[in-house]
Specification:
single chain; alpha/beta; six-stranded parallel β-sheet; binds adenosine monophosphate
């Protein structure tokens, strides 16, 4: 049976019960409109921990455009059924008033890792994420928290927060779940127009083509990114927000030679819908080993 908790005090006592009987607690924070990408995280948590808590909260603090917040897809009923079917144990579904009963004056910021990609493109975005994730960790008190590598920069930023603040939670990154056509599952995919939807697979194809060139021996970042940006610019109705190569730890822009472990990351608008995706450069033929 799924326990549905709207109050912080309820999720706290639920988790405290589990922990006092020696059970490990996994946590999957989400913004709802759940899909197979979230499913991969929830399954990992159920497999790796005794109890799994999923939160659904569309965090106003991380939206710089009010319109994005208002159009963000929401479906609490479907989310609850999805979580229940997977076998998670608790849902934490707080209201905005529960999370932010007064103006949030304490905001977390992080240096360096947030300088590029979404940190640069969306002012205040990671402040909002760090602040809400820290609050959620204090409310849920998990042993392990699961995040998707689709949001590579988010995982890096949260890992660093946990290290910097000596937090007692382990962060596990889960590989991006994709539709058979390669499109990374994302809540925003629902917002794509009929006309733009068929072009969504081209984003990941462009990333893969760039990695293929790297495997052919091209490691000059300027050449690789030029090819990537040209491929993205050729997609009808597409506008590139960024398409960059960064190192995998500090997420600083690479400008000379690409190496294994670097991350190709992009944010592209298809029509009015902003999609992000990334690819971690692998060893050539690493799938054979
Ligand atoms: P969101 O609801 O978009 O805030 O996402 C909640 C969590 O699900 C984050 O850790 C995301 O990285 C993760 N996630 C979203 N889409 C995917 C995906 N396609 N594959 C793996 N994880 C994902």
């Amino acid at each position: 049976m799924l326990s549905v908790n709207r109050r912080i005090s309820d999720i706290r006592s639920q988790v405290a019960d589990w922990r006092s009987s020696g059970r490990t607690v996994g946590f999957v924070p989400t913004m709802g409109a759940l899909h197979e990408g979230h499913g991969a995280l929830i399954r990992a948590s159920i497999e790796q921990c005794d109890r799994t808590v999923v939160s659904v909260f569309v965090n106003p603090l991380q939206f710089d455009r009010k319109e994005d917040l208002l159009t963000y897809p929401r479906d609490d009923k479907a989310d609850q059924a999805f979580i229940e079917d997977l076998g998670a144990h608790a849902l934490f579904l707080p209201s905005v008033e529960e999370m932010y009963p007064q103006e949030q004056w304490t905001i977390l910021t992080q240096k360096t890792i947030t300088n590029n990609l979404d940190g640069n493109a969306r002012p205040g975005f990671f402040d909002g994420i760090l602040t809400v994730v820290l609050k959620l960790f204090h409310m849920v008190h998990p042993d392990v928290a699961f995040f998707g590598l689709k949001d590579y920069q988010q995982v890096a930023v949260i890992r660093r927060m946990v290290a910097d603040l000596n937090m007692e939670v382990e962060i596990r990154g889960i590989p991006t779940a994709r539709e058979p056509n390669g499109v990374a599952y994302a809540s925003r995919n629902k917002l794509l127009s009929e006309e733009d939807r068929p072009h969504a697979p081209l984003l990941y194809q462009a990333l893969q083509a760039t990695e293929a060139r790297f495997h052919q021996g091209v490691d000059d970042v300027v050449i690789l990114l030029d090819g990537l940006r040209k491929a993205l610019a050729a997609i009808p109705n597409a506008r590139i927000d960024y398409a960059d190569l960064v190192d995998g730890v500090c997420l600083q822009l690479k400008t000379e030679k690409a190496s294994v472990g670097d991350v190709l990351a992009l944010a592209v608008y298809l029509g009015s819908v902003r999609l992000i995706d990334n690819l971690i450069l692998s060893e050539k033929n690493s799938f054979l080993s």
